[in-house]
Amino acid sequence: MNRRLTTLFVLATLAAACSPQPKLADPVARGRRDFMGLGCVKCHQIGDDGNAWGPNLTLVGFRKSPEWLRTWLKDPHAWNVKTVMPNFDLTDGQLDDLVAFLSAQKGQAWAVYPWRTAAAKALPPVERGRMIFNLAGCVACHGAGGVGGYPNNNVAGGLIPSLTMVSQTYSKSELHNKIEFGVTPLPDDMSKPKPLIYMPKWGDQLKPDEIDALVAYLFTLAPKTSQNLGF
User: Fold this and answer.
1) Apex 146 CA angle, 132 and 200, nearest 5
2) pTM for this entry
3) Which of 16, 155, 160, 164 has the fewest CB atoms within 10 Å, i.e. the most exposed one?
4) Same-domain pairing of 127 and 181
């Protein structure tokens, strides 16, 4: 009898595992499922999950618009020919769900923002600012070390500007204000669609002392020259 019950239990478990899973009604939940299933976590972090090889996406819904996210996910190489992100050939439904999931990521995946831990607050402002630059996602637009060169549509030169000269262009208070209140780039051609990438109002996410730390870090940046490259 026990053997028969065990066999029935195993058969029931296999039947449940092989039966179609209920369709998720929430597009954010479906997007999360696809984000995990497609292996996005192999390169990206959201909260404490994933890997830090690519840009951190915990705040991606704050700093990038749904329109840009859809454009990017549909064909990354059409936006940036140098990207190493593959084209997943997503269906329209997958695109909709992934955009919904990523647009919902506005910092809630962090129980505590990394730069607000006791250890982070004890860091020198420049080091804390570097942490914010990388983990908040500034690096995703401005590049490692603020070198710039990433594409944007319908802006002068077609590129996001470098930050390596901000110490020679702005005072610390001026740069603080730009970060706090954000920047919407002017279209290079008013007859064409507006630029999809803009700097959001970081004052909605960062406290004044955190913006000050970010400014301190940005003021250490310098353009690459033969001297600082070691040539």
Assistant:
1) 60
2) 0.86
3) 16
4) yes
